[in-house]
Specification:
Elements: H1 2-23, H2 39-42, H3 46-57, E1 60-65, E2 68-73, H4 76-83, H5 97-100, H6 112-129, H7 134-148, H8 152-166, H9 173-182, H10 186-219, H11 221-234, H12 250-263, E3 272-273, E4 278-280, E5 283-285, E6 290-293, H13 295-299, H14 302-305, H15 343-360, E7 361-365, E8 376-378, E9 382-384, E10 389-393
Parallel strand pairs: 2-6
Antiparallel strand pairs: 1-2, 3-6, 4-5, 7-10, 8-9
Helix pairs in contact: 7-8, 7-15, 8-10, 10-12, 10-15
The chain binds protoporphyrin IX containing FE.
């Protein structure tokens, strides 16, 4: 009896989807399992799956996650066009971030007027705090001092984001969430949601990028040496590297670009949703469809990069090594109206950490351990697998 009910349900869902799919002229895409869609294709190794889907179906393809419709965009022009269109500024209510954002509040998960106000409010107040100014650089340098002084605090600061989840009581994370639960006033809730968003969006992304940076340079001692040689020549060893040195350190800047390209932490960005039934790039897009940017696949497209698997900062340098060649195909922070709010902070932070760490230390892989590789550990973000390194203070 139960098996008959299941069979009827599966047939009904399949028929519903077939008829519904025929109603729309949707982009091409892989066939899915009724009720589950393509969840098994993309869930385990999304970076591999989305690269293969882009290869097979092109720069715009359609798939489903359960019963949710999704469209993935695989070139910069399509992503720009879509993410600059107010119709695609929505967020999915199912989003994980809603848990942190106390419902659809804050910045990441909110939409419509609330999103406009919260984003504007946050940017204005972060600027008062020194966001994008010298004050922020001073704060980053203070953090760096703690980190670069070989100490437990430094090691803990790298681990901090994961500690929140591993020890929620000890780190105060549960306390923070309990405070949020006590407030029902909209203003306070929104403020807590914004703080939670900045913490959630900023901490783990930055620390994972830094973990990738150290790994790439430990695996590639020749690149590490070129970075150090330029820092020694331009800044020397008697003072720290600052943001004012940036334009004189093209190799560091190119290395940063390559770190963002190669790590591609946020495989398909954060999904946007379509606010109404509409058409895009010649296809129908039903209301509620998730619109995603195929960031990892663009960053690893052999047609764009030739050797995407290699870590090679020189791809972003002129032949004489003096000028940085920026590429619009590097888009770790996404594009359009919802582009990462912390982009400048993250760029400054990683630049300062990268240059100051390698000014003072040489880092190599531990020869007694299995050789680490570039294969990521898949979670909400792509992290490097655990690795062991040897850190030596430079003479
Ligand atoms: C390497 C570090 C980072 C990466 C790779 C990154 C990447 C991203 C991406 C791909 C998005 C989605 C944009 C979209 O919806 O199209 C995003 C959104 C966001 N990021 Fe970042 N991010 C980083 C660091 C930060 C930092 C340091 C902060 C805050 C201090 C931050 C705050 C935010 C916020 C608030 C949003 C939501 C924007 C909105 O919905 O309007 N991020 N980030």
């Amino acid at each position: 009896m139960i098996s008959q009910i299941i069979l009827i349900l599966v047939v009904a869902i399949a028929a519903y989807h077939y008829l519904n799919k025929r109603k729309w002229k949707l982009p091409p895409g892989p066939p899915g399992i009724p009720g589950l869609g393509n969840i098994f294709t993309v869930a385990k190794t999304p970076h591999v799956a989305h690269s293969q889907l882009k290869e097979k179906y092109g720069d715009i393809y359609y798939f489903t996650l359960g019963t949710t419709r999704a469209v993935c965009l695989g070139n910069v022009q399509l992503i720009k066009e879509c993410f600059n269109d107010p119709n695609y500024n929505g967020r999915a209510k199912e989003m994980l971030t809603c848990i942190l954002s106390q419902g659809q509040h804050g910045i990441i998960a909110s939409e419509g007027q609330e999103w406009v106000e919260q984003r504007r409010f946050t940017l204005r107040h972060l600027r008062d705090f020194g966001f994008g100014k010298n004050l922020m650089e001073n704060l980053i340098m203070e953090e760096l001092d703690d980190f670069a002084r070989p100490s437990l605090a430094g090691i803990l600061s790298l681990l901090a984001p994961s500690l929140l989840h591993m020890a929620p009581e000890l780190t105060g994370w549960n306390h923070f969430k309990r405070i949020g639960d006590q407030f029902h006033d909209d203003g306070v809730r929104s403020l807590l949601a914004v703080i939670g968003d900045l913490f959630f969006a900023g901490a783990e992304t930055s620390s994972a990028t830094l973990a990738w940076s150290v790994l790439y340079l430990a695996i590639n001692p020749d690149i590490q040496k070129k970075l150090q040689d330029q820092i020694d020549e331009v800044v020397g060893k008697s003072r720290q590297v600052t943001l004012a040195d940036r334009s004189n350190l093209p190799y560091a800047e190119a290395t940063l670009q390559e770190i963002f390209r190669k790590s591609s932490l946020v495989v398909t960005g954060v999904m946007h949703t379509a606010g109404k039934d509409t058409t895009f790039a010649g296809y129908d897009i039903p209301k509620g469809t998730w619109m995603m940017a195929n960031i990892y696949a663009i960053h690893h497209d052999a047609k764009l990069w030739g050797d995407p698997g290699n870590f090679r900062p020189e791809r972003f340098l002129s032949t004489d090594g003096k000028k940085v060649i920026k590429s619009e195909n590097v888009l770790p922070f996404s594009l359009g109206k919802r582009i990462c709010l912390g982009e400048n902070l993250a760029r400054d932070e990683i630049f300062l950490f990268l240059t100051n760490i390698f000014q003072r230390f040489s880092i190599s892989v531990d020869p007694t351990q299995p050789k680490p590789d570039y294969e990521p550990k898949v979670g909400f973000l792509l992290h490097p697998k655990d690795y062991q390194i040897i850190v030596q203070e430079r003479a």
